[in-house]
């Protein structure tokens, strides 16, 4: 098995399993809407549900429409992730890690939507000025970190392609 495949599948499995394990733990140990302070005034473990997409978008749409839309979008996203993975160079480990994390997060939230009809969220932050960031979960975190890794890699490789192959900057 090529190294990029090991990294891709490993990241996918770690994220998907940890995401589902944490959601099961939260759901079985806390009552709905409970809030447990970890760093009082800043970070809390909660037990809430999100019927919508990010920031509760479309949460009020009728359940059959909402679930069909979100499941359909997730399946398209999964197909795109796998397609991007298949086009990676054999040594492109950072992109493989990133795509594995994004896939694990997408599948983690898809499992919630199929099984529960909504996503379990449990990480809650209060920021400056009393602003409260919308609750989220490990799947959401993995997606964001995976996308951030892809952006960093894109910016790094963009810089490489603009430089002279001999390592001399143009005009120097």
Strand order of the largest sheet: 1-2-3-4
Beta-strand proportion: 15-25%
Helix content: 55-70%
Structural class, by secondary structure, is: alpha+beta
**Helix count, per DSSP?**
4
- Mean pLDDT across all residues, rounded? 90
What value does the Rg take, in angstroms?
19 Å
Counted beta strands: 4
Order of helices and strands: HEEHHEEH
The figure for the number of domains is 1
Short recap of the structure:
The chain is α+β, with helices and mostly antiparallel strands and 172 residues long. It has helices at residues 3-29, 63-86, 93-116, 138-162, and strands spanning 35-39, 43-50, 119-126, 132-136. A four-stranded antiparallel β-sheet has the order 1-2-3-4.
Describe this structure in words.
The protein is globular, with a radius of gyration of 19 Å. The protein has 172 residues and is an alpha+beta fold. It has one domain (3-31, 45-157). Helix 1 (3-29) packs parallel to helix 3 and helix 3 (93-116) packs antiparallel against helix 4. The mean pLDDT is 90. A four-stranded antiparallel beta sheet has the order 1-2-3-4. The longest helix has 27 residues, at 3-29. The chain is built from four helices and four strands; from the N terminus they run αββααββα. The termini are far apart.
């Amino acid at each position: 098995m090529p190294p990029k495949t090991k990294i891709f599948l490993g990241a996918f499995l770690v994220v998907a399993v940890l995401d589902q394990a944490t959601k099961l733990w939260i759901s079985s140990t806390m009552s709905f809407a409970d809030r447990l302070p970890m760093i009082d005034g800043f970070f809390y473990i909660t037990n809430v549900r999100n019927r919508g997409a990010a920031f509760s978008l479309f949460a009020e749409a009728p359940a059959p429409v909402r679930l069909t839309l979100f499941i359909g979008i997730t399946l398209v996203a999964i197909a795109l992730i796998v397609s991007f993975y298949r086009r990676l160079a054999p040594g492109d480990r950072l992109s493989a890690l990133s795509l594995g994390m994004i896939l694990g997060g997408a599948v983690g939230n898809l499992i919630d939507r199929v099984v529960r009809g909504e996503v379990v969220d449990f990480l809650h932050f209060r920021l400056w000025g009393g602003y409260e960031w919308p609750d989220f979960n490990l799947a959401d975190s993995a997606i964001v970190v995976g996308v951030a890794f892809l952006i960093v890699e894109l910016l790094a490789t963009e810089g490489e392609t603009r430089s002279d192959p001999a390592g001399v900057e143009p005009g120097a």
